[in-house]
Amino acid sequence: TRDRVDIGPEAIISEMISELNVGHAYYNGRESERGPSMNVGMLGVDWEAGTGPDGKTVYRFGHIVRGAPWDADARNPLDDLGVEVKEGEYLLAVNGLPVDGSKDPWAPFQGMAGKIVTLTVGPNPTMDDKVREVVVRPMGEEDSLRYRDWIEANRKYVAEKSGGQVGYIYVPNTGIDGQSDLVRQFQSQ
Predict the structure, then answer these.
(1) Cα 185 vs. chain centroid, distance in angstroms?
(2) Are 74 and 148 in contact (CB under 8 A)?
(3) Which helix (H) or strand (E) is 176 found in, with range?
(4) DSSP secondary structure string for all residues of the chain
(5) In the chain, how long is the greatest CA-to-CA distance?
(6) Which residue from 142, 126, 148 is spatially nearest to 77, judged by alpha carbons?
(7) How many Å apart are CA 178 and CA 69, to the nearest integer?
(8) Measured between alpha carbons, how far is 116 from 135 in angstroms, rounded to an integer?
(9) What are the φ and ψ backbone dihedral angles of 51, each rounded to 5 degrees?
(10) 41 and 112 in contact (C-beta within 8 Å)?
């Protein structure tokens, strides 16, 4: 048998806190919504699938992922000068080839990260007289863009709920990157 040791409440609380206290462990909740893992050109878009007039699947630009205007390190290629793609428009062709709705919306962008790509887009799910071509350079990854979009969504939510009386600044850590984020966001608030 073991000898019994009396432990006071402070010791128990201390042990509980030490069990719960983990430094540098993060979870952002986005792991379940990952895009493809191969070299694919990314446009920073949450795609929406719809049905075209022929009954086939078509892809629409749902949410275009953006950071704040001051986020120069995370720019969406759809925001480049002259591109002007809008949420709700349809992606009809990539480099002149019609988008195949039976495949993922990323399929036409395989191997296109960092390369010049021509998109045919339009307000309707068909090739009509309102389509136009835009030239973009898809990104190789969009994690930093989605991170900045998440911060901006939180900032807008807090501003809306507080009537602009409360600011939102996300500081991910106390290192140089975190301090840079603090200064950048503080000045913009």
Answers:
(1) 18
(2) yes
(3) helix 176-188
(4) -PPP----HHHHHHHHHHHH--SS----S-GGG---SSSB-B-SEEEEEEE-TTS-EEEEEEEEP---TT-TTS--GGGSTTT---TT-EEEEETTEEP-TTS-TTGGGBT-TTS-EEEEEESSSS--TT-EEEEE--BS--HHHHHHHHHHHHHHHHHHHTTT-S-------SSHHHHHHHHHHHHH-
(5) 88
(6) 142
(7) 19
(8) 7
(9) -115, 125
(10) yes
Predicted local confidence at residue 122, as pLDDT: 96
Residue 89's CB is within 10 A of a number of other CB atoms, namely 21
Residue-wise pLDDT for 11-68, tens only, equals 777 766 666 655 555 555 555 556 555 689 999 999 999 999 899 999 999 999 998 8
Query: Tokens standing for 139?
Result: 């990104």
pTM over 0.90: no
How much is the pLDDT for 189?
73
Tell me the two tokens of residue 98: 């019609």
For residue 29, the one-letter residue type is G
| 175 compared with 119, residue with greater pLDDT | 119
Rounded-to-10 torsion of CA 14, 24, 149, 34? -110
pLDDT digits (tens, 9 = 90+) for 1-19: 455 556 777 777 776 666 6
CA gyration radius, the chain: 23
